[in-house]
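Hi X.,

You mentioned you wanted examples for the new student's onboarding notes, showing what a folding record looks like when two proteins sit in one file. Here is a clean example. The first protein comes first, with its sequence line followed by its structure tokens.
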Amino acid sequence: MVYKKIMDHAIEHRYALVFAGGVAAAIIGKKVLESKAVKEATTNCVAEALAVKADAEEKLAEIKADAEEKVADEE
């Protein structure tokens, strides 16, 4: 009986509950994103991505040089 009253009250005010849940999620999300651990993790991820990009550009330059060399040999 008490459970039904609680559920009826929750359903009646569902938009307020959704709003309150959104506010709580925003506050918790902000705290998580500002934490030192998240900052270090994202910094490491970006550093790794930049290293992969540099390696890919280096390999692309090598492939381009090899291709140009082959074209020059065929002429």
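Then the second protein repeats the pattern, sequence line and then tokens:
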Amino acid sequence: MDVTPEILNEFKERMRLGDDEDSNLLRILLSSLQALTKVCGDYDIQTDETFKELVFERSRYAYNDSLEYFNDNFLSMINSLGISKALDEIVLEGDANAEI
């Protein structure tokens, strides 16, 4: 799991930030990516727009020193992604067991 330069640039454009904070923003984005992967499951930030949106929102809250409000404000989205990932894994396990 990695934050690519494209993801960083997309976040900077969204937040209207310059290039002088790249290392801090990369750290924030990676931290958000890791934290949300633990809670929601392993999503690809490159291809899943909903997960990317959640990572960006958590990063925005972290950047603005308001991270303590993120979980409450995005709980339904976090739960939705977590449940969706769990259901996908159940379906995959069922398909694997059907082949045995």
